[in-house]
Design goal:
Layout (H helix, E strand, L loop, with lengths): L1 H17 L5 H4 L6 E4 L2 E4 L6 H17 L7 E3 L4 E4 L2 E3 L3 E4 L14 E5 L5 H14 L4 E6 L4 E8 L2 E8 L3 E6 L2 E6 L6
Parallel strand pairs: 7-8
Antiparallel strand pairs: 1-2, 3-6, 4-5, 6-7, 8-9, 9-10, 11-12
Length: about 190
């Protein structure tokens, strides 16, 4: 019995070794939208549904208007955020308060937002949540289009703490000398 278990363990561990491990060099050759997490590719298709896109545009617009007078912070919709050679993410929205000098973002943004879809909800709430937290990104917003609810997480002592959630509320984000008061009721319109 023990011999069979050892044999199964050896067979299982060899399967793990034959899984491909991709890097940024591979990633830039692929067609379509992808994310790469610890060497494993994740397709970003099908394209988001209209409600997802409407919320994304409205959220980005709210941040752009709030940060209009800020000279340092820029709002981006999906761009490559390269955490490591084998981990490249594309958050639905980001706020970046330093110049980006490469074809991708290679440092922590000030804020990331993910708009959940049935295909990405688990990855966004767990894997990406942990990755963003490990990068010490000050703010993480999770938007649920189905429930029309937003969750605001802020990094406190190296861990995300839920600061506010719901459908209709305002929250003020602070990026050094720039502030962005956001009315989340506006993103559902």
């Amino acid at each position: 019995m023990l011999k069979n278990l050892i044999c199964i363990f050896v067979m299982m561990s060899s399967v793990v070794k034959i899984l491909p491990h991709y890097t940024y060099e591979d990633y830039v050759q692929w067609e379509g939208r992808w994310e790469l997490i610890e060497g494993m590719p994740y397709a970003m298709s099908p394209q988001p549904v209209p409600k997802h896109q409407r919320i994304a545009v409205n959220l980005a617009t709210e941040f752009r208007m709030a940060l209009k007078k800020c000279k340092r912070c820029v709002v981006y919709e999906p761009i490559d955020y390269k955490i490591a050679e084998d981990t490249i993410l594309q958050p639905d929205m980001l706020v970046v308060c330093k110049p980006i000098n490469k074809k991708f973002l290679d440092f922590s943004p000030s804020l990331v937002a993910e708009i959940l879809s049935p295909a990405t909800a688990l990855k966004d709430r767990h894997t990406k949540f942990d990755l963003y937290q490990s990068q010490n990104i000050p703010y993480f917003i999770i938007i649920s289009p189905d429930n029309e609810e937003a969750e605001i997480y802020e990094i406190k002592n190296g861990e995300y703490k839920l600061m506010q959630s719901g459908h209709s509320f305002s929250y003020t984000f602070s990026f050094d000398d720039c502030i962005a008061p956001i009315d989340f009721n506006e993103i559902w319109q």
